[in-house]
Amino acid sequence: MQYRKVLKNGDELSALGFGAMRLPVTKGGQIDEKKATALVRYAIDNGINYIDTAYPYHGGESESFLGRALKEGYREKIKLATKLPAWEVRTYEDFDKYLNRQLEKLQTDHIDYYLLHSLNENTWKNVKNLGVLDFLNKAKNDGRIVNAGFSFHSDRKTFKEIVDSYGWEFCLIQYNFIDEENQAGTEGLRYATSKGLAVMVMEPLRGGTLAEKLPREIEKIYSESGDVKTPAQRALRWIWNHPEVTVVLSGMNTQIQVEENIKTAEQATPGSMTGAELKTMEKAAEVYRKLLKVPCTGCSYCMPCPFGVNIPMCFYFYNQYYMSGKKLITRGTYIGQMMGIMGEPSNASLCRNCGKCLKSCPQHIKIPEELKKTSKTLEGLRTKLMKPLVKRFLKAKDD
Question: What global pTM score does this model have?
Fold first, then answer.
């Protein structure tokens, strides 16, 4: 495993971090305790020493799961990161309430890397006015947290303001080869590093979009490069090529993913990519930016929808419709999974434009507007004509 140093404290952190947001789950959607525990421990046994979770992950169960999974000496082998749900804070007392609750769930007496979760202009203003910086100092002094940081999904001006407001040890930003100019971006990455912050990276594969079911145009670009690396390896290597990056978080849910990512991390040192490789990634980024309809990463902060819309899945299928090159299959799968044939309906046209989701989206997507576009694309006349065929196919499959 490759390790990179945190400038302010000297910690040697694995370049690959384990993100506990997309753990293996059962058919009922609950964390598969046995598989997830084995996966987390396998990752630690093979060199990963940075585990990241948050208060809302897996419906609030991710922290409790890790509290159990990190027993038998595994807690002492890693640096543990979790996040204060900044959007839930109403009073100064809430800071202590959430931190103490998280310590209890994680079954630990301290958090190594504690973040203010998903800051933007409004949440930052709120927690700052409520005294969050005094709280961080107090929690560091009494030992409940060791290092203070923040995760970020907003504009670059706000990012720099937050960086300059406190003696943070680190921050967490969304960064990948198609998001160089989005949110903090490359400019923010370098700015934070210039101030001595370690920079952790989330969404390196944009919720899997950059690694699965590639558009034909992207497959062609990768094939013509003559390089046999997988899409995930290409995307991760691009991030690790930046010396400013400390840890790249990956929401791995299979051992194969862990093995492949560890192997990539071992080789992807700063400046290791060739000019030809970087040119390939530039070409791919241009195509992705043209094809991507909605910048949704599948974080599910917008859920649950009061009217039953599975917002992330709707946008996933909407993007896949244009990016996968398999429009008929995508439409059929949308019909099966979203329109009630395989369970409760959760399709885009159920949206009633209540606006609740707008407050929680870290990408600032105009969700109701995009759901209308999704519905128009995937629930029109062609879908109505195709729906009986999908029903018949699924019935035959069950029989």
Answer: 0.79
